[in-house]
């Protein structure tokens, strides 16, 4: 590994206990540790402290049998001959993708480098610095003082000592005193002519941990190689100079072998290239006879084809190379990276480049340098420098950790990091063993009977990840905390786990400004003005990767507000600029040199206002825009933002923040509504939206269409019958028809009431083949199920997809729906069998996920698109949902929600959570019915037959047959889960031979979970009654007759006859209602509604 870590107290006489990384500590030590790594790249401390070396076993004989140190075998344990061959791993890499396909193009590499150079803000860059950019002396002073504070503490505590074990003198400690000012800073560019030691502290002597392993000089920050550029910053007391390279900063000897200053006309070439990389030693011969000897691995400036630059003590040499180099401006590919990695196999390890070797981070820096991808110098920074990073520290199971690593490898090159070390992942060998290649010093090996031996490797080697297993350090696999990927966007399986690299904001507005339907830029309000914040939104079907929104004001000054990401797919990226000044702004969405969309925005001096409306003459609103890829994508973002948690970083809002009294509350919230006050007339304060379940999808779609002047249509439909699905009128109603009202808000309010009076839950349960519908079925693909998609269950309830919560490294994914109740309440609920009821049978109803049918505005009205025109793309018409069984439907959906295999115990907890949520929601519904009956008397009329599920009046408001049917289905889903693991073991990462044993274990876990969750209700006598989920499962038969509000509340919760709980019951439904309930009981026992 990069650096071994400091000793800790012995566990017993034979081995030592590893202590936590100092980065987890407190006070100046931990703070300076991180700042050294992130700001200065100081050698030793940045990659962790030395790990404990094992003590010899007690007694001389035991010591001989179990030595403290030994040389590792030439071929490490578990490594076969083929594992050390490049061609073997190139063949294996093909499992993750085309080995020659660019993972990052040369342009993308440049944008990545630009991002890393500016990502750290005031803390300094994550990646390498551009030595031609202005130097921040204030940041430099802070960095030096933080490094000195760290070192003072280490010296004072005895953690660092001289090579002879002696402590530091007062004079040496005074050299590290806090500085009020720096010595005069005068940056000057030079080129190293020989290897130059870059020291961490301002003295040339080394310092070591008390073990005094002289191979690990803690004062060795790095080694500057010949022909690397060095920027001398200041002369330092004691005969040293403060200097930096593109990747590290420290102190060099005053007599260090440096060239004269680089001439100004050559600075660009020496610092920014282009470069060629020399695989072997070469000579640069100048036209005047001068020459430069270049070592293997040199990065040589090439200002023009066939020409190269070097420097000697006499100055610049311009000429030709006697060997061909590799142009670093090339795509990053799997084959290319493996080729460079194996070219260094067997080369020596060296802490801080000691004796010409490479430590773990320098090894990777050298590999990626050949592609022009400038990596940070130290492993802690390299762990932040990927296209994306996945934190796996919380994953306990090595199986689950490996699944994340394998999923990451599909996106690109994978690096694996734990504190103090970083490795290049090769993949799995033919036997399925994960392997890495890395430069490292040592690993710990168990030594029987109880000892441990430190095995010295000290070279670039291939190994598996079991090294260190059964020791105090643990295996390499167990210690991995970060998975770093250089390449493409994360797959669906890692989308929620990945932390993207920061975007590099575009530096200037392009002359030509445009967007497209695939990447479209929107603004709100419709008339931007200084009195309202300017919201800029970008919609896209594809993942745009790191993206910044740069807003250039009329004076050309750049503003970079924080970007919020929604989705996906599709994706919406939005940012807000408060109080924009009047004039023409330019909004640019992009990353570095990549411009994705651009638009000129004209900010006027005052707010907009409402347009006049002539009652019963003017339409509800006129359609200016049309539904297309861009507006559909933005609609998905609008719905997701409306229901997303408002607390930053929160995955899912708690129940008390997931229910609202009506839809108006949501659209009036500027933090939720992307189109809030879009007209600039505070119009949302006047909007009244109280939907039931059928209204909610229509109200959301109509509201969005109204704000953006898009067409909207809806149809009157019947409710269907047994063997006859609901059917709708051939001619739709639409927003172009006249409505009452004096302004835009009045007109929309009238229009929304017309919608509410027309649509009902059967409006979306139409047959999938029908063209005369408002909605149509879509494929069960992630990109087809965007927020805003309608879900119709077969029995009379509608929901919409509110948002997807993606699976992370340690948490399961969740699909969140939203629905409304007859009283207008809007709430969120999780997808599962108990909440999203489905049947593939279309003879009486077409259930499932459906998208709104696109409509086009025409002079005579609107024209909805027919099914045969809805082909291709994510919103294509499809019958896929109806092919197969209900189990097939739910299995497909679960695979979309959690693309990676699920750990069965965790999934069981998710199902119990959902059952608990369903039970808690029922408490309020039953309480509402109880309050109504107590106030109005037990006289709620009960409909006959199917109408108990679908009617109007008090029964519809206070009876719970539909909710109870869903609760019973929920109970089945929970209790049947162990059997589903047996049915689909691969979905849960379980081998077929182990499935029965896992199911048996889950039965025990389920019993414990159900006993630990409970609801509480007030009995008829006012006493609080606790009912566990285990009780509810046992009461299934009673719950089949528990939906009538005329019965006492004890009966509605299935209280066993003769129990103390049932003793307070004083009310029962009329005998005729009880007789009919007994007749209808079979529907609930079968968990299936009857035909209409």
Description:
- By secondary structure, the chain is α+β, with helices and mostly antiparallel strands.
- Helices cover 26% and strands 21% of the residues.
- Strand 5 (229-236) and strand 6 (240-244) form a beta hairpin.
- Helix 4 runs antiparallel to helix 9, helix 16 runs antiparallel to helix 17 (744-758) and helix 19 packs parallel to helix 23.
- The protein is globular and about 105 Å long.
- The termini are far apart.
- Mean pLDDT is 91; it is low at 1-62.
Q: How are the strands of the largest sheet arranged?
A: 1-19-18-17-16-20-15-21
**Biggest sheet, open or closed, and with what strands and sense?**
8 strands, mixed
- The helicity comes to 25-40%
Shape: globular
Main structural class: alpha+beta
End-to-end separation in angstroms reads: 71 Å
Mean pLDDT rating: 91
* Quantity of strands, as a count: 42
Enumerate how many helices there are, as a single number.
27
Strand content: 15-25%
Q: Flag low-confidence runs.
A: 1-62
- Rg calculated over all Cα atoms: 34 Å
What's the structural blueprint in terms of helices and strands?
Elements: H1 27-40, H2 43-46, H3 60-65, E1 69-71, H4 86-93, H5 106-118, H6 137-157, H7 170-174, E2 188-191, E3 196-199, E4 220-224, E5 229-236, E6 240-244, E7 249-253, H8 264-272, E8 275-277, E9 282-286, E10 291-294, E11 299-301, E12 308-312, E13 315-321, E14 326-327, H9 334-343, H10 360-369, H11 379-382, E15 388-391, H12 398-409, E16 412-418, E17 421-428, E18 434-447, E19 451-464, H13 476-479, E20 482-487, E21 498-500, E22 519-524, E23 534-540, E24 548-552, E25 558-559, E26 564-567, E27 571-577, E28 583-591, E29 594-603, H14 629-643, E30 659-660, H15 663-667, H16 695-708, E31 713-714, E32 733-734, H17 744-758, E33 775-777, E34 790-792, E35 798-805, E36 814-820, E37 826-830, E38 848-852, E39 855-858, E40 861-864, H18 886-897, H19 904-936, H20 954-958, H21 961-975, H22 977-983, H23 995-1012, E41 1014-1018, E42 1024-1028, H24 1029-1034, H25 1036-1039, H26 1049-1052, H27 1071-1086
Parallel strand pairs: 1-19
Antiparallel strand pairs: 2-5, 3-4, 5-6, 6-7, 8-11, 8-14, 9-10, 9-13, 12-13, 15-20, 15-21, 16-17, 16-20, 17-18, 18-19, 22-23, 23-27, 24-25, 24-28, 26-27, 28-29, 30-37, 31-32, 33-38, 34-35, 34-38, 35-36, 36-37, 39-40, 41-42
Helix pairs in contact: 1-6, 4-9, 16-17, 19-21, 19-23, 22-23
């Amino acid at each position: 590994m990069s650096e071994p870590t400091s000793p800790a107290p012995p566990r017993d006489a034979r081995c030592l206990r590893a202590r936590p990384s100092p980065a987890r500590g407190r006070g100046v030590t931990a703070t300076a540790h991180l700042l050294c790594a992130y700001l200065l790249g100081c050698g030793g401390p940045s990659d962790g402290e030395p790990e404990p070396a094992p003590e010899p076993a007690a007694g001389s004989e035991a010591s001989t049998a179990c030595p403290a140190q030994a040389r590792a075998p030439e071929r490490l344990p578990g490594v076969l001959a083929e594992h050390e061959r490049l061609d073997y791993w190139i063949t294996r890499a093909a499992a993750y993708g085309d080995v020659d396909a660019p993972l990052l193009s040369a342009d993308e590499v440049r944008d990545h480098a630009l991002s890393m150079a500016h990502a750290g803000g005031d803390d300094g860059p994550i990646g390498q610095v551009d030595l031609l950019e202005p130097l921040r002396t204030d940041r430099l002073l802070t960095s030096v003082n933080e490094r000195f504070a760290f070192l003072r503490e280490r010296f004072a505590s005895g953690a660092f000592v001289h090579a002879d074990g002696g402590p530091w003198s007062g004079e040496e400690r005074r050299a590290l005193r806090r500085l009020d000012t720096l010595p005069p800073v005068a940056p000057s560019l030079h080129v190293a002519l020989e290897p130059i030691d870059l020291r961490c502290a301002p003295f040339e002597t080394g310092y070591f941990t008390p073990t005094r392993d002289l191979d690990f000089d803690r004062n060795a920050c790095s080694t500057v190689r010949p022909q690397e550029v060095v920027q001398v910053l200041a002369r330092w007391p004691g005969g040293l100079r403060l200097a930096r390279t593109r990747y590290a900063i420290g102190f060099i000897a005053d007599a260090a072998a440096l060239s004269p200053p680089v001439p100004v006309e050559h600075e660009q070439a020496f610092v920014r290239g282009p470069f060629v990389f020399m695989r072997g030693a070469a000579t640069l011969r100048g036209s005047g006879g001068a020459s430069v000897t270049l070592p293997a691995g040199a990065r040589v400036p090439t200002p023009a084809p066939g020409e190269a630059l070097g420097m000697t003590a006499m100055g610049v040499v311009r000429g030709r190379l006697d060997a061909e180099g590799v142009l670093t401006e090339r795509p990053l590919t799997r084959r290319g990276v493996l080729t460079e990695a194996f070219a260094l196999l067997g080369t020596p390890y060296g802490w801080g480049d000691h004796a010409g070797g490479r430590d773990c981070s320098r090894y990777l820096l050298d590999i990626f340098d050949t592609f022009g991808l400038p990596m940070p110098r130290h492993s802690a920074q390299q762990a932040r420098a990927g296209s994306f990073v996945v934190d796996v520290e919380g994953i306990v199971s090595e199986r689950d950790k490996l699944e994340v690593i394998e999923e990451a490898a599909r996106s690109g090159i994978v690096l694996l990091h734990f504190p103090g070390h970083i490795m290049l992942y090769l993949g799995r060998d033919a036997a399925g063993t994960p392997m890495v290649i890395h430069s490292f010093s040592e690993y710990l090996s168990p030594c029987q009977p109880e000892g441990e031996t430190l095995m010295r490797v000290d070279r670039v080697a291939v190994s598996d990840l079991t090294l260190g297993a059964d020791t105090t350090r643990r295996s390499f696999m167990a210690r991995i905390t970060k998975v770093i990927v250089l390449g493409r966007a994360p797959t669906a399986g890692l989308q929620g786990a990945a932390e993207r690299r920061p975007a590099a904001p575009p530096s200037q507005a392009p002359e030509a400004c445009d967007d497209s339907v695939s990447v479209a830029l929107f603004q709100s309000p419709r008339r931007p003005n200084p009195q309202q914040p300017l919201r800029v939104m970008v919609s896209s079907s594809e993942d745009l990767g790191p993206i910044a929104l740069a807003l250039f004001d009329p004076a050309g000054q750049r503003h970079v507000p924080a970007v919020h990401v929604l989705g996906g797919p599709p994706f919406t990226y939005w940012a807000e600029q408060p109080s924009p000044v009047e004039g023409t702004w330019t909004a640019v969405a992009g990353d570095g040199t990549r411009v994705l969309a651009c638009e000129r925005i004209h900010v006027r001096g005052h707010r907009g206002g409402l347009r006049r409306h002539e009652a019963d003459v003017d339409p509800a609103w006129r359609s200016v825009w049309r539904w297309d890829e861009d507006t559909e994508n933005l609609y998905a973002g609008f719905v997701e933002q409306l229901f997303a948690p408002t607390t930053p970083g929160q995955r899912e809002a708690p129940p008390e923040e997931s229910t609202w009294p009506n839809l108006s509350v949501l659209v009036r919230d500027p933090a939720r509504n992307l189109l809030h006050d879009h007209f600039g007339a505070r119009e949302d304060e006047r909007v009244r939206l109280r939907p039931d379940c059928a209204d909610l999808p229509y109200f959301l779609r109509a509201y969005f269409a109204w704000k953006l002047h898009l067409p909207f249509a809806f149809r009157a439909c019947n409710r269907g019958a047994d063997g006859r699905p609901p059917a709708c009128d051939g001619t739709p109603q639409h927003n172009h028809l006249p409505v009452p009202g004096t302004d835009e808000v009045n007109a929309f309010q009238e229009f929304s009431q017309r919608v509410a009076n027309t649509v009902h839950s059967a409006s979306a349960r139409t047959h999938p083949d029908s063209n005369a519908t408002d909605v149509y079925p879509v494929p069960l693909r992630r990109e087809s199920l965007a927020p805003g998609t309608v879900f119709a269950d077969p029995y009379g309830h509608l929901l919409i997809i509110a948002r997807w919560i993606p699976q992370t490294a340690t948490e399961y994914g969740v699909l969140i729906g939203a629905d409304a109740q007859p009283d207008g309440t809007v709430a969120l609920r999780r997808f599962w069998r108990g909440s999203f009821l489905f049947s593939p049978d279309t003879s009486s109803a077409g259930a499932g996920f459906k998208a709104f049918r696109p409509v086009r505005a025409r002079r005579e009205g609107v024209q909805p698109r027919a099914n045969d025109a809805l082909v291709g793309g994510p919103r294509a018409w499809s019958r896929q949902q109806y092919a197969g069984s209900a189990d097939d439907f739910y299995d497909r959906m679960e695979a979309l929600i959690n693309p990676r295999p699920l750990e069965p115990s965790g999934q069981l907890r998710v199902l119990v959570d959902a059952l608990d949520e369903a039970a808690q929601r029922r408490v309020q519904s039953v309480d509402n019915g109880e309050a109504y009956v107590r106030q109005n008397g037990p006289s709620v009329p009960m409909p006959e037959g199917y109408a108990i599920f679908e009617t109007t009046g008090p029964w519809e408001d206070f009876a719970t047959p539909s909710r109870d049917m869903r609760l019973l289905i929920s109970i089945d889903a929970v209790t049947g889960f162990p059997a589903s693991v047996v049915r689909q073991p691969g979905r849960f990462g379980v081998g077929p031979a182990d499935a029965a044993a896992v199911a048996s274990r889950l039965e025990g876990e389920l019993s414990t979970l159900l006993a630990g969750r409970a609801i509480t209700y007030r009995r008829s006598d006012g006493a609080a009654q606790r009912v566990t989920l285990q009780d509810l499962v046992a009461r299934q038969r009673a719950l089949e007759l528990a939906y009538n509000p005329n019965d006492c509340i004890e009966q509605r919760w299935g209280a066993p006859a003769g129990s103390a709980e049932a003793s307070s019951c004083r009310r029962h439904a009329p005998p005729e209602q009880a007789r009919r309930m007994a007749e209808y009981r079979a529907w609930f026992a079968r968990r299936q509604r009857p035909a209409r």
